[in-house]
Each structure stands twice: as C-alpha cells, then as structure tokens.
Design a protein that fits this description.
By secondary structure, the chain is an alpha/beta fold. The chain has two domains: about 120 residues, Rossmann fold (3-Layer(aba) Sandwich), CATH 3.40.50; about 150 residues, Isopropylmalate Dehydrogenase (3-Layer(aba) Sandwich), CATH 3.40.718.10. It is built from eleven helices and eleven strands. A hairpin with a 5-residue loop joins strand 10 and strand 11. It is globular, with a radius of gyration of 20 Å. The chain starts with 13 loop residues before the first helix and ends with a helix.
C-alpha cells in the first residue's frame, strides 16, 4: 500500500493502516534522543523491526547498554552517539539533522522541554519560516475518521498568524501522509461569530484566509462548536450547511488548554489512542508521552516516517538551480 492510498473504515484500526502504509516506504534515519528506559528502547526496537525507522541512539552509551541488557533488548548493529545527559543528547540530535545524518527526531525518556529547547534554539535549532506546532493523530474507536487535534502541546495562546501556521502544518501532514484533502473545523464554544468570544472572530478570519489561498489544500469552516464539527445530526439541528460541519477531520482548537483537555477527554473517556508529531521544524519530531503505549509510539513513528518520506520525495523532484 502506498502513502497515497491510505484509507480508513469503521471496522479496522486507523493506526494499523498508517503503519502498513509506512512499512511500504524506506526506513527513515531517526535520531532517538536519550532512550534510557525500557519503554523508549522497546518502541525503538519495534519500529526498527517493522522497518519504520533506522535509529541512531543519542545518549550515555553505558546507561543505554545497561538498560537494554536488563530488558532483554538487542542493540545489535545500532549506532550509539555518546551524549552525557538529556540536554547534551537533544543538542547532539539536532546536530545530526544539520549534518544530514537524521531525517527525523524521536523523543526518548527525557522531558519535552529539554528536547524542544534544543529544537527551537534561534542559533542552532531546527526552526523554519513556519511556527512550530504539535498535532495529535487520534484513533477514536467510536469515530470513523482519524482525527487530528492541533495545537494541544506547544503554542499556549496562539495569535492569528500563529494559528495560520498551525492549520497549514496540520493540513500539509494530512495531505502528505496520503489521507487526501482535509475538512478542517476551527473550533470555538459556539458556531456564530461573536465579538465577545475572540476565537470566533479568528475562526472567521482563518476561513477567509483559506479563500484567499493564505491557507492551501484544505476545506475550512468555522467557528464550529465541537458537537457540530464532528456529528452530522448536531450540524443538521443547528442548520449548518457546509462540507466540514459534522464531518471534520482536523480540529483546530482555540488554545493549548482547550486542546489538551479535548485530547485527554477522548483518551480517557473513549479509550482513544493519541499519537503525536511536532511540525514546522526542518524535520518531523516524534513527540509522545512516556506513558504512551508501544502501539501509540509505533503509530507516531509511522506518521513521522510517511511525512519524512513525502518531504524527501518533494525535495528530490524539485529542479536543481
């Protein structure tokens, strides 16, 4: 199955289809930052065995070897780049990207802020002209489509310019991993433009930006409340007629707090899985929680692999100057 033919249906795992599609692509060279616990090493081992990634482990070699031995994990043929602590490991992983040795970065057992500090450094990091943002790729058992939620992890209170980048980052990911042209709902508490609720005004502005090609390759609508964004009956009762209402695939939240609560509600109440990826940097960054299941981390690796390979094909097809 190629990345351009990823499909989902209600009777199969969305993640399984993404992983299957990623396995049809070349493994992506991935700098794994400070993989010093069993869960990190186990997810690396599984992703390597499935040919999703070609890992370079970055951290204290003695600790990595000791942890692997205690857990019965083979490090045969794996390269380990020495780095004394989490901050040094994050900096060295970023350097591997600059050297062209890594096309993706994956978080190990360090804290998110330790990794992102190196990624967002103005002098040595992986910034581009886009704002960096995070996307949850959610497999909700009761919902047909894979749901993207953004941004629930990086940008606390994004302004309009930042929201434009947040939307475009998520849209580019959706397009490039083979899911087609996304239906994007700009969420708020209500579905009407209300001056007392600033997020409704920004939602309307983002939709107009889409009409003017300031946001490309997506269908936007907003403001939409959560119910009439994903439930056709709710949209019908509110008499909202659009291609997005009731059928949204990307949910753009007003701020980090709203997104974080939404994602965790789906995870803990509906037993959804939440893979995670950071976008807008020079390479995709697999950013998951240390509490995530191996399957969720595999899905994160699969999405990152699909995206990295799509970007590589785009660069390869560009005419040389």
């Amino acid at each position: 199955m190629s990345a351009s033919t990823v499909e989902t249906d209600a009777n199969s795992s969305k993640y399984d289809k993404l992983i299957e599609a990623a396995m049809a692509n070349p493994a992506v060279s991935t700098a794994v930052v400070y993989p010093c616990d069993e869960r990190s090493l186990r997810s690396v081992d599984d992703a390597r065995d499935s040919a999703l990634i070609s890992p370079i482990l970055v951290g204290p070699a003695d600790l990595i070897h000791r942890t692997a031995a205690e857990c019965g994990i083979s490090l045969h043929d794996l390269e380990i780049v020495e780095a004394a602590d989490p901050n040094a490991a994050a900096a060295r992983a970023v350097a591997l990207v600059h050297e062209g040795r890594a096309q993706m970065v994956m978080k190990g057992s360090l804290h998110t802020d330790e990794l992102m500090r190196a990624v967002t450094s103005s002098s040595t990091g992986l910034r581009t002209s886009r704002r960096i943002s995070h996307v949850f790729i959610m497999d909700v058992p009761t919902h047909r489509d894979t749901l993207f939620i953004t941004d629930a992890a990086i940008n606390i209170a994004p302004d309009l310019d930042t929201k434009r980048d947040i939307v475009q980052n998520a849209v580019d990911l959706f397009n490039d991993i083979g899911l087609g042209t996304p239906r994007v709902a700009i969420l708020s508490a209500v579905e009407t433009v209300t001056p007392k609720i600033p997020s409704t005004i920004e939602a309307a502005a983002l939709c107009k930006m889409s009409e003017r090609d300031q946001i490309r390759n997506a269908i936007l609508d907003g403001p939409l409340a959560f119910d009439n964004a994903i439930d056709p009956n709710a949209a019908r009762l509110k008499k909202i007629r659009s291609e997005v209402a009731g059928r949204a695939q990307i949910l753009v939240v007003p701020d980090l707090e709203a997104g974080n609560m939404l994602a965790k509600n789906l995870t803990f109440l509906l037993k959804a899985d939440a893979a995670g990826l950071v976008l807008g940097a020079r390479v995709p960054i697999v950013l998951t929680s240390r509490a995530d299941s191996i399957r969720t981390k595999m899905a994160s690796c699969a999405v990152g692999s699909l995206y990295a390979n799509a970007r590589r094909r785009t660069v390869a097809s560009m005419p040389s100057v």
